[in-house]
Amino acid sequence: MRTPPAVEDLLRTLAPQVLGTLVRRHGAFDACEDAVQEALLAAAVQWPGDGVPEHPRGWLLTVATRRLTDQWRSERARRDREAAVFARDAVLAQEVEGPGPDEERPGDRDDTLTLLFLCCHPALSPPSQVALTLRAVGGLTTAQIARAFLVPEATMAQRVSRAKQKIRAAGARFALPPAGERDERLRAVLHVLYLIFNEGYTASSGPDLQRADLTAEAIRLARALHGLLPGDGEAAGLLALMLLTDARRPARTGRGGLLIPLTEQDRTLWRRDAIEEGTALITDALTWSPPGPYQVQAAIAAVHAEARRPEDTDWAQVLALYRLLAHLSPNPMVTLNEAVALAMVSGPSAGLDLLRTLDGDDRMAGHHRLAAVRAHLLEMAGDPEAARDAYREAARRTTSLPERRYLESRAVRLNGEDNEHA
Fold first, then answer.
1. What contacts 24+ positions apart, CB below 8 Å, involve 226-232?
2. Is residue 25 predicted with pLDDT exceeding 60?
3. Residue 53, class by beta-carbon neighbours within 10 Å (0-12 exposed, 13-18 middle, 19+ buried)?
């Protein structure tokens, strides 16, 4: 039985609240996370038929607590620990059967931010941070995460398990990081949410260009983070960037899932509600917060969103913003986009000159985006033969089937134009 979307949304909202309460009371993040996952699965099975309980958070907390108690019982077989287990059970029973489990008690609070910091612990690699965040904070099952990233469920299960083991080995406490570490850890949290969104917006591999479930989850988590940190400009900037970018999703693919580039999209399909919300967010944030990389990217997206037609785009402003972004967060992907903006302002030759600075960058070795941007600028420069070769090179390098089809179609079209002029 498929879980209704409304129930799925409720479970994802409640998952970090229940897990946070459980970990704060009893410690043992890995055991508590397993218990919450079992409770979420039980709810996904029971609630569609029985109805959502009057106190859904309390229901989940009760079931997860029982699962945790069962784990402790099975793990404490030695007789000299039985007394401690029974004493712990009594405390758990009092907590569950005393005040309503879903009612606020002194000390109960929203622990989503603490969970995000824990899942993005520096002991973990970025892929592990992403997987653990989606499972512990997003409430996704291991199977759902595995499907989203096109890997076997067993592989993703191992990744999640290793991540939890590293958290335990690092001695991480369920608490916000010290003030001196908070900014750096927050950057890691923002980066993980950004990675989740990007993988959903342009899948790195597989038959589909987009995975709406991942973009929706990234936006939900970014919205929650912004709600928890309303005074952080970069949290606002990241949410604005996601909203403004995702607003284009209905226009990004055509018949058969073929990719449609920004300049050829039907802009009447762009979601105006998301554009208005994202524009308002970034406009407000830039009035009181020093600009950061996510705010600048959101500002660029807002400039594109303001243009009703491609030719109305204020490319000079876009170029200025990319140069600011290159100063704040220099990386080759920023240079790629700056080269496109420069080409639109000063001509394709200027853009191609900037691209050449990336030819010796090891980070771009074999990356399809460099060849794809070069192909686009060569086509603008009136060199169809070189552009066709670059499109073909980019198509060979990408692991995304929709991108490959698009790049190959550009090469074929240029080949046709060559024949017409022969």
1. 226/281, 228/110, 228/112, 228/113, 229/113, 229/186, 232/186, 232/289
2. yes
3. middle
* Residue 106 in this model has a pLDDT that exceeds 60: no
Report the chain's mean pLDDT, rounded to a whole number: 87
Helices (H), 347-400: 348-356, 368-380, 384-397
Angle separating helix axes 384-397 and 401-421, nearest 10 degrees = 160
User: DSSP for 228-287?
Assistant: H-TT-HHHHHHHHHHHHHHTTGGGSB-GGG-B--GGGS-GGGS-HHHHHHHHHHHHHHHH
User: For 343-389, how does the pLDDT look when each residue is reduced to its tens digit (9 = 90+)?
Assistant: 999 999 999 999 999 998 888 877 899 999 999 999 999 999 999 99
- Number of CB atoms found within 10 A of residue 84's CB: 11
Residues 6+ apart with CB under 8 A from 338: 319, 322, 323, 325, 326, 354
Q: What is the distance between the alpha carbons of residues 152 and 116, in angstroms, rounded to a whole number?
A: 25
What is the reported pLDDT for 107? 42
Residue 86 has pLDDT above 70, yes or no: no
pTM: 0.82
Residues in the chain: 422
Residues 294/238, Cβ–Cβ less than 8 Å: yes
Query: Which residue in this structure is represented by tokens 């108690």?
Result: 69
